[in-house]
Amino acid sequence: MKDLPAALRPREKLLSMGPQALADTELLALLLRTGLQGLGVLQLAEKVLNDLGGLSGLLRAQPAQLSGIKGLGPAKRSELMAVMELARRAMIHELSEQPVFTAPQMVKDYLRLHIGALPHEVFSVMFLDSQQRLIACEEMFRGTLSQTSVYPREVVKRALALNAASVILAHNHPSGVLEPSRADELLTQTLKSSLALVDVRVLDHFVVGAGGALSFAERGLL
Prior knowledge:
This protein is of the alpha+beta class. It has helices at about 10-15, 25-30, 40-50, 55-60, 65, 75-95, 105-115, 150-160, 180-195, 215-220; strands at about 120-130, 135-140, 165-170, 200-210, 210-215. It has a five-stranded mixed beta sheet, with helices on both faces. Strand 3, helix 9 and strand 4 (about 200-210) form a beta-alpha-beta unit. The protein is elongated.
């Protein structure tokens, strides 16, 4: 980057124009700081984004994916993972401070970061208080690539233990296909009925993939 005019260097651009003026590659280059022999830091940043499918892919990347990219040593991987965890924690803080349905897109974004890129299927539950603020988001069950076993009794027990008033259900489709299956719909109704017995509402169920999140409520499936 020393070969670039000062006004075009990412750090100088950020300080003079603000972070919004920088491209994704430039922001990542600031975190990486150095490149490789024969590959400048901007080129390395571009390669990382290309390999991971852009900035959203980077935010969802697992440690094994980062370690497979040449040029990302332990120090760089640690910094990137720290930034990603800060993003997750910032979202959790926001969701715990306000009703979740004042920020529906943040719920989707958080779930995409949380489970969207996992190679195996998981079933998570967001437990909410009486003001629909997040108490906890917990992975309840883990399965194979295509199937997971969900036990309604365990979800009910955990909701009671956390004194939750409502929940948002979520599971990922590693295939990336967001269309809910008939089994997904039946499970949702079973959990809705089970939780209703202890006065806990199911507000939504999201099917999450690397490319987005589908809401049962928006589809009229609740």
